[in-house]
């Protein structure tokens, strides 16, 4: 199931059968910008999108940058954690093991 809404034209919404028959032509249409994307339907459900490689790389770069920003935010927040709130690895493993055993027992 899709977690995001998106806009698609009827020309961009194609069955898997149609895509498999016309893949070369569809790729050419994406390359020359006649089509922005192709949404492939399998059993009447949107399964995958086919997009231009440069667009994919652009979107991947944006996602990677957002992930780095999120990691940086987490690191910056942890720098402000007082050392008395730290927990040793041994204590963390013991606590995790105890919690796991409690769940198994129920």
Describe the structure in your own words:
The protein is of the alpha+beta class. The chain folds into 2 domains: 1-51, no CATH class; 57-82. The protein is 57% helix and 15% strand. The protein has helices spanning 16-31, 53-79, 89-105, and strands spanning 13-15, 37-42, 45-51. The chain has a 3-stranded mixed β-sheet. Helix 1 links the parallel strand 1 and strand 2. The longest helix is centred in the middle third of the chain and has 27 residues, at 53-79. The chain is elongated, with a radius of gyration of 24 Å. The two termini are 32 Å apart. The mean pLDDT is 90.
Considering the chains and any ligands shown, give keywords for the structure:
106 residues, 2 domains, 3-stranded mixed β-sheet, 57% helix, 3 helices, alpha+beta
Rounded mean pLDDT score: 90
Distance between the termini: 32 Å
Proportion in β-strands: 15-25%
Strand order of the largest sheet: 1-2-3
């Amino acid at each position: 199931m899709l977690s995001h809404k998106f806009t698609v034209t009827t020309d961009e919404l194609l069955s898997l059968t149609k895509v498999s028959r016309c893949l070369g032509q569809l790729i050419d249409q994406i390359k020359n910008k006649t089509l922005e994307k192709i949404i492939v339907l399998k059993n009447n459900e949107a399964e995958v999108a086919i997009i231009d490689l440069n667009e994919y790389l652009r979107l991947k770069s944006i996602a990677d940058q957002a992930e780095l920003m999120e990691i940086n935010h987490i690191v910056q927040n942890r720098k402000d954690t007082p050392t008395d709130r730290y927990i040793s690895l041994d204590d963390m493993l013991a606590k995790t093991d105890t919690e796991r055993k409690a769940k198994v027992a129920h």
